[in-house]
Write a structure and sequence with these properties.
By secondary structure, the protein is an alpha/beta fold. The protein is built from 13 helices and 21 strands. The chain has a 6-stranded parallel β-sheet, with helices on both faces. The protein has a 5-stranded mixed barrel with strand order 17-18-19-21-20. Helix 12 packs parallel to helix 13.
């Protein structure tokens, strides 16, 4: 057996892509290992979304170069180093120019060609760079069998983005919006269920813009896809992420009201609360549109947990603008959220603006926003105390008999689960709320 080490950075879609690379390499005789030492193939699956992503990759590559030389010196054989993902897509040839130890560079839309790329590298002895956006369907070329994945799994249903928010690199690294056909997704979902998966998170950069070819030959919306998948026996829970406010269609809101397998959790980024900033971000909605949307979603599913993404310090953002972000946050009451300092991404429109916000102002705003979001998350968790809810048992805990499960709202729940197994759905009452997780007891 040869050994492959895949290190994944960034979003859940990269986690999914890394798994699919592993699936491709299995038949070529590779087994996955947890560390880079002693690996015959090392893949960095990189992210380009924020701060110094490329620099971090180069510094990691410097370490791997030493490892590679050390291993060769000790007769351990050749170590092939590959850079995949969004930094690979953005940097391309530059990577092999700057770091001679790199053998392969390929983007998020070309990793299905990994076996061929490895072959080309072996035959020519030269570095191979593959960052075109190919016309063929990547997914149709990926290995079919899904090996054991645990109880929860990601499934990419949509990729790329046509929205062109002025801060965002995704349309350039992942390419144009693309939806997989329903039949292809169904086949993958069934394979996951056969491998023991009970909860599937449908992934897409813009997942609620999904419009894939339906089983009936018509275009299916995300709500249609969810309805379809929820009929598969063995799928107990469905989630989806990440959504854009503009694509939050009526049928999807209705699905949250009506489909018991669709979990009451929605990640719906607003990014900023000031209409002027939203406009300059090219978001295509105002703060008020977002709040009205949230009101409709809550009407459909009152207990829904909301999460979001925020950017502070977008070019030209004033203190007054930022306070509107705080105001929207207060109005929504998030169960959790991600917030970031604006980071100029080369090639995006906002990066060229002259009115960049000073670093210390960004840091101050981020701290204030995160303090508010932290309080809201605590409040949301606290409100779960005493509540009954179904929990899907996911993995062993640290204590004998303890298992860790997941609530409908994506919280980790610790419980004494003697007599139950991983993969079981149990009804619990939450009886303790800690800083990071909930504890509960199972109903007899
Ligand atoms: N700077 C900071 N944060 C960003 N994000 C995307 N691009 C940038 C950027 N240039 C954040 C957004 C997005 C999340 C995935 O990352 O909030 O929703
Ligand atoms: Fe990072 Fe975006 Fe690429 Fe995901 S799609 S790895 S978040 S740059």
């Amino acid at each position: 057996m040869k050994k492959v080490h895949i290190k994944s950075y960034g979003c859940q879609m990269n986690v999914y892509d890394s798994q699919r690379m592993g699936d491709l390499l299995g038949p070529l005789g590779y087994e996955a290992v947890a560390g880079p030492e002693d690996a015959d193939l090392i893949i960095l699956n990189t992210c380009h979304i924020r701060e110094k992503a490329a620099e971090k990759v180069y510094s990691e590559l410097g370490k791997l170069r030493q490892l590679k030389h050390e291993r060769a010196k000790q007769g351990g054989g050749e170590t092939v180093i590959a850079v995949a993902g969004c930094v690979a897509q953005a940097e391309g040839e530059e990577i092999v120019r700057r770091e001679k130890a790199v053998d392969l560079v390929f983007g998020p839309q070309t990793y299905h060609r990994l076996p061929d790329l490895l072959k080309a590298r072996a035959v020519t002895g030269r570095a191979v760079v593959e960052t075109e956006f190919p016309a063929e369907d990547k997914f149709a070329h990926l290995a079919k069998a899904a090996p054991k994945r645990g109880v929860t799994a990601f499934l990419t249903v949509q990729e790329g983005c046509d929205k062109f928010c002025s801060f965002c690199v995704v349309p350039y690294t992942r390419g144009a919006e693309f939806s997989r056909p329903v039949a292809q997704i169904e086949a993958e979902a069934r394979a996951l269920v056969a491998a023991g998966v009970r909860e599937i998170t449908l992934l897409g950069q813009n997942v609620n813009a999904y419009h894939g070819l339906g089983a009936d030959g018509e275009v299916s919306s995300l709500a249609g896809l969810i309805t379809y998948l929820s009929r598969i026996d063995g799928i107990e829970r469905l989630r989806f992420t990440t959504s854009h406010p503009r694509d939050m269609s009526d049928d999807l809101i209705e699905a949250h009201a009506e489909n018991p397998k669709l979990m009451p959790y929605l990640h719906l980024p607003i990014q900023a609360g000031s209409d002027r900033v939203l406009k300059e971000m090219n978001r295509g909605h105002r703060a008020e549109d977002y709040l009205k949307l949230i009101a409709r979603i809550r009407e459909a599913r009152p207990d829904i947990a909301l999460s979001g993404d925020f950017i502070v310090g977008f070019p030209g953002e004033t203190e007054a603008d930022f306070e509107e972000t705080l105001a929207v946050t207060r109005a929504v009451r998030y169960a959790g959220a991600f917030s970031f300092k604006y980071s100029p991404r080369p090639g995006t429109p906002a990066a060229d603006r002259a009115d960049q916000v000073p670093e210390e102002v960004k840091a101050d705003r981020l701290a204030r926003l995160q303090a508010l979001l932290g309080t809201q998350q605590k409040d949301f968790n606290q409100a779960c105390l005493g509540r009954e809810m179904p929990v899907l048992l996911e993995k062993p805990g640290r204590h004998p008999g303890q298992l860790i499960g997941r609530s409908p709202y994506l919280q980790g729940v610790y419980l004494d689960a003697r007599g139950h197994a991983i993969g079981d759905m149990v009804n619990v009452t939450i009886d303790r709320v800690g800083s990071n997780a909930l504890s509960a007891h199972i109903h007899p």
